[in-house]
């Protein structure tokens, strides 16, 4: 526990009202108590952009500390056997690793998951979107989350990896079960579901990676199997855990960012109408790319991340020791008026837009280019196909899943016309 002579405040991360709309409380904390200690989560919490970005770039913090210290040295309890496979997965992928392992993994994955490969997906993404939109909205109300936001990212990452169509329906439920364990409210049922999802997902990917070694194809699993640098390759387990991570991270931000973004646009109709007016133009994609950035800033799909102290230090008056955790409220930093002009308002032409949504530093999101492309193309296709889209109920608050670490709409009822 940090020695923290800071105000003690419990962030209500499990309160449905807070998850529904965290921004008023975040604004109050950002102005009045920008740094505080949360005794419930046992960590220092940062709310301002400058403080968050400083920690993200500070090499004294990491996503893990177990590469330097034992659990006993950190004062951490022993691993929970109820989530041993989930913990093994977390400890083996690049998001929760630190140099030199992180450097090695990111270099190898980067050889396969290139910006050129991502940009080459535009035509295929547009074809998938056209298929999804065919007939959508013609029979009245539909759920934007299930019927439009969810299918695309899952289909794209599945095709990119090379997961057969017959197995794709399993991916979203597996991912949802795995990421649920990142929430502070996770219980024994969430543990069991995450464990089962990791095991089932791993079994599928082990089979697919074996097939690709025998019969290479034009997909990301094959590229990862063959990725080599200075004679080094990914082990089978590293490849499996990397693919699980790409699936999870590759669509959570896209699904939640698109649904929340459309909700924001329909609540502020003038912005939706401006996009609709621009959408038919062939040169409109840059506008939709800027709009996507602003929507990711305005309503952050991943509101809270953490870093772990790797050495003893002082942070805003709190004495930290190795293993102490710091929570970074991206959702608050993305609305900090010290960084953004009129941050509580949408500005679809905001440029530059240095939001925190994909992180900063060495752990900057590897899948950010894909998420950005999917969101921009999804918005443009929706505006072109359903220009008269509106909320089923004008005062629709949105129904959220209940998580705050990964915050997304469970459903959003809309109608065209």
UniProtKB/TrEMBL annotation:
UniProt superkingdom: Bacteria
InterPro entries: Cyt_P450 (IPR001128), Cyt_P450_B (IPR002397), Cyt_P450_CS (IPR017972), Cyt_P450_sf (IPR036396)
Pfam families with a match to the protein in the record: p450
Residues in coiled coil: none
Key words, A-Z: Heme, Iron, Metal-binding, Monooxygenase, Oxidoreductase
Gene3D superfamilies referenced in this protein's UniProt entry, alphabetically: Cytochrome P450
Keyword Oxidoreductase: yes
GO function terms (MF aspect): heme binding; iron ion binding; monooxygenase activity; oxidoreductase activity, acting on paired donors, with incorporation or reduction of molecular oxygen
Family the entry assigns: Belongs to the cytochrome P450 family.
Protein name (record): Cytochrome P450
């Amino acid at each position: 526990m940090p020695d923290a002579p800071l105000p003690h405040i419990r962030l209500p991360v499990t309160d449905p009202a807070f998850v529904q709309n965290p921004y008023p409380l975040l604004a109050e904390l950002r102005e009045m108590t920008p740094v505080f200690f949360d005794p419930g989560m046992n960590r220092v919490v940062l709310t301002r952009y400058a403080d968050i970005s400083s920690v993200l770039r500070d090499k004294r913090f990491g996503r893990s500390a177990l590469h330097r210290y034992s659990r006993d040295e950190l004062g951490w309890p022993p691993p929970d056997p109820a989530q041993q496979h989930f913990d093994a997965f977390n400890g083996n992928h690049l998001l929760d690793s630190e140099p030199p392992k992180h450097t090695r993994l990111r270099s190898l994955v980067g050889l396969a998951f290139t910006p050129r490969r991502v940009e080459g997906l535009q035509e295929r993404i547009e074809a998938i979107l056209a298929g999804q939109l065919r007939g959508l909205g013609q029979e009245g109300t539909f759920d934007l989350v299930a019927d439009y936001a969810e299918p695309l990212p899952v289909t794209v990452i599945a095709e990119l990896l090379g997961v057969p169509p017959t197995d794709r329906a399993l991916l979203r439920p597996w991912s949802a079960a795995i990421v649920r364990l990142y929430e502070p409210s996770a219980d024994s049922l969430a543990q069991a579901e995450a464990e089962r999802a990791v095991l089932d997902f791993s079994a599928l990917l082990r089979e697919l990676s074996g097939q690709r070694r025998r019969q290479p194809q034009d997909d990301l699993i094959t590229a990862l199997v063959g990725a080599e640098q200075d004679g080094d390759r990914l082990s089978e387990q590293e490849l499996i855990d990397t693919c699980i991570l790409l699936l999870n991270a590759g669509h959570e931000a896209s699904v939640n960012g698109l649904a929340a973004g459309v909700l924001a646009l329909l609540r502020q109709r003038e912005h939706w109408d401006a996009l609709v007016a621009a959408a038919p133009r062939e040169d409109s994609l840059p506008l939709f790319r800027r709009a996507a950035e602003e929507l990711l800033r305005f309503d952050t799909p991943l509101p809270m991340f953490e870093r772990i102290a790797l050495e003893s230090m002082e942070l805003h008056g709190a004495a930290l020791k190795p293993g102490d955790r710091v929570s970074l409220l991206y959702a608050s930093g993305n609305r900090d008026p010290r960084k953004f002009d009129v941050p509580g308002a949408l500005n679809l032409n905001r440029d530059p837009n240095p939001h925190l949504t994909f992180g900063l530093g060495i752990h900057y999101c590897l899948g950010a280019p894909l998420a950005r492309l999917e969101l921009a193309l999804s918005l443009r296709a929706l505006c072109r196909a359903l220009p008269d889209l509106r909320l089923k109920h004008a005062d629709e608050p949105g129904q959220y899943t209940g998580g705050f670490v990964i915050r997304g709409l469970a459903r959003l009822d809309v109608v065209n016309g």
